[in-house]
Amino acid sequence: AKLNGRRGYSVYDSMIRRDRKRRAVLIEKLRVSLSRDEVGVALQPQSNLRSGRHEGFEALARWKVGGAAVPPLELISVAEEAGLITQLSYRLIDKALAAMAGFRRDGLSPGTIAFNVVAAQLQEPDFIERLCAMVEAHGLSPQDIEIEVTENVILDRAAGNIAAALKQLHKKGMSIALDDFGTGYASLTHLKQFPIDILKIDRSFISGILNEKDDEIIVRTIISLAHNLGFEVIAEGVETIDQYKQLSNFGCDLVQGYLLARPMSEEESRAYLDSVRRP
Ligand code: C2E
Ligand code: CA
Ligand code: CA
Ligand code: CA
């Protein structure tokens, strides 16, 4: 930056200004979208590697502004900054639960539904109560629900409260999954301190399991660590049949990724469930 002198700095400053402007605009648009109930949910299937059977879905937020999709990570960070994340998540959870209940009414077996939650949600005093009430209102049970948290969530400053909230959810019968495992700063002690049931291996390790020895070793090690601690393990970002076979060789329990299906609308998910149904 120094070499470019003023010019370098001014380019940087203008980038920062543009970014702030975009976020301020997005916050306003998000408020409007929420009031019009325009934030959607996509469902991505997970399947059991041994039986080959459908296991459940992960719910993922979807939001379009002026016809263009806003990347979910940006949506979530904007929503957190604006204090809108809890509101947004309740909407999304309700939509996904309604879809699951609808699938059941149609005679389909949608399995479990996983929700991504952030620290702010787990710190809401009535989060657990409200979530359980929503689950019940849709005729589902806590056993149908998985809660996905990243390492950042369990490393939050309020880690004590977070652990207590996760323990309560776990006690109700929900499963807790540690998302993006291997990319953050969580240590092995955290695996004992938190009531974790499932490790989700980050997709950055999955992409290299066929041709990068390091990734292969990391994935095999995570799988055996998970099993030794009594956790299930799911690989995310599985895109090819060769990765699928390799994960099967490694003894991985579950898979999720474009190979099975991309995140889908409710209609597409219904068609998917119908197509994987067995007589
Ligand atoms: P995530 O929880 O790790 O979700 C999986 C992401 O991987 C999704 O990205 C999904 O579309 C993508 N993905 C799935 N299979 C494949 C594959 O085979 N290859 C590749 N390259 N990608 C695959 P998406 O939908 O863009 O979401 C990104 C992130 O945004 C999520 O990562 C999650 O951290 C966050 N997110 C999305 N929805 C929510 C939400 O409702 N609440 C919270 N707190 N976070 C959310
Ligand atoms: Ca499961
Ligand atoms: Ca996730
Ligand atoms: Ca993930």
Structural notes for this entry:
With 279 residues, the chain is of the alpha/beta class. The protein has helices at 5-35, 72-81, 85-105, 119-123, 127-137, 151-154, 159-172, 188-193, 203-206, 213-228, 241-249, 266-276, and strands at 40-48, 54-62, 64-65, 68-69, 112-116, 145-150, 175-181, 198-201, 232-235, 254-256. The strands form 2 sheets. The protein has an 8-stranded mixed β-barrel with strand order 1-2-5-6-7-8-9-10, surrounded by 5 helices. The longest helix is centred in the first third of the chain and has 31 residues, at 5-35. The protein is globular, with a radius of gyration of 20 Å. The mean pLDDT is 94. The structure holds ligand C2E and calcium ion (3 copies). One calcium ion binds next to β2.
The gist of it:
By secondary structure, the chain is of the alpha/beta class. It has helices at 5-35, 72-81, 85-105, 119-123, 127-137, 151-154, 159-172, 188-193, 203-206, 213-228, 241-249, 266-276; strands spanning 40-48, 54-62, 64-65, 68-69, 112-116, 145-150, 175-181, 198-201, 232-235, 254-256. It contains twelve helices and ten strands.
Radius of gyration: 20 Å
Strand segment count: 10
User: Beta-strand level of the residues, as a percent range?
Assistant: 15-25%
Please report the number of helical segments. Answer: 12
| Structural classification | alpha/beta
Widest β-sheet, arrangement of strands: 1-2-5-6-7-8-9-10
| H-E string | HEEEEHHEHHEHHEHEHHEHEH
Ligand inventory reads: ligand C2E, calcium ion
Arithmetic mean of pLDDT: 94
Q: Which spans have pLDDT < 50 for at least 5 consecutive residues?
A: none
Please report the distance between the alpha carbons of the first and last residues. Answer: 65 Å
Helical content (DSSP H or I, runs of 4+): 40-55%
Question: How many strands, what sense, and barrel or not for the largest sheet?
Answer: 8 strands, mixed, barrel
**Any idea what the shape is?**
globular
Domain EAL: 23-277
Protein name: Diguanylate cyclase (GGDEF)-like protein/PAS domain S-box-containing protein
